[in-house]
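Homework help board

Subject: predicted structure for assignment chain

Our instructor gave us this sequence and asked us to write out the predicted structure in token form, then describe one feature. I got the tokens but I'm not sure how to describe them. Can anyone check?
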Amino acid sequence: MPSPYRALFAEPGTKAFSAAGFLGRMPLSMMGIGVVTMISQLTGRYGLAGALSATIALSAAVLGPQVSRLVDRHGQRRVLRPATLVALAAGAGLLLTAHFAWPDWVLFVCSAGIGAVPSLGAMIRARWAALYRGTPQLHTAYSFESVVDEVCFIFGPIISIGLSTAWFPEAGPLLAACFLAAGVFWLTAQGATEPEPHPRGQHGGGSALRSPGLRVLVATFVATGAIFGAVDVVTVAFADERGHKSAASLVLALYAAGSCAAGAVFGLLRFTGAPERRWLLGVTAMAVSMIPLLLVGNLPLLAVALFVAGLAIAPTMITTMSLIEEHVPRARLTEGMTWVSTGLAVGVALGSSAAGWVIDAAGARAGYGVPAVSGAVAVVVGFLGYRRLRKPAAGRGGTVEQHSEREERHLA
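My token output:
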């Protein structure tokens, strides 16, 4: 591991909370696809399987920011454990209902309950921010966490699908629930690195979304999430049309691998300019990288194109976290990070639905028009909101170098 990453773990407790966060985040990529695999095997109803997966995603989009807001006020330990118990109870209900063929409405109720699962990525990033706020190490920490996210998305679906198909249908979601329980309870046992809560009286009511800059980030990442959701669905259909459906998982893994590699390198770099410029450049690069997908005609070329497209993802996400640091008051930092994840989740649901409709109407190759259009929308929203991103929240300004540059721009 390069020295900047080694230096991250010089602080006591960092290795432990990072490991717990990795374990607790595995369900993020395992649960949805695990439910689809389980339901399709037990019932053969792919429509029901997709609807349940969408219910979990949308429920998490609604409940996730509320859980994180409570965490900001009361602390991780007091909130994460009850929220996780709710999600685990709902998950157990889902497995039992599927196994014993109980009514469909019970499946949907349990799927909605799983949405109470906490955003472990936001919790870990909040711990890094508490340790390294205002230092170059925070950029490296956010880069490391983006790499961890991509590793989860590379291996999580493979583990979940493999267990459910090779062992028994409920195995994938069951292991995801075990990972969640172990990760959350291990993390919340580590009180020394837990960020201090900010009771309601310290920052008043209201949501982190009151920040104009955060609203720009969330709106942009709805469109970005649509890119991800559409690419997943269209790639599976593209491989299926060419008689190699099983190869879709490998092609999509290369998409995540490109992001993983770029994130690792990005964390080694040091920047002194304003992060909103890098962010807008990253969003634009993500959009442009979708254009070659419209031109590819075979899986090898598609794999190369997706790997290259993945190179823009992690750097953009890392810079987004830096911008949240500037535009969200410290007392609402966890909630702010979760709102970006919520925007992505909503976008994934919209993108996958739109892509499915286009595929049915015009074929898989035409389906890549959905992520291309989504990328264009993301760029437009980013440009329209750029002025808001240049105005950090009161009392926030990023690093000393960024603050000085902002003063120079203001005087100019």
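Reply (TA_rk): Your tokens look well-formed. For the description, you could write something like this. DSSP finds 19 helices and no strands in the chain. That's the kind of observation they're looking for.
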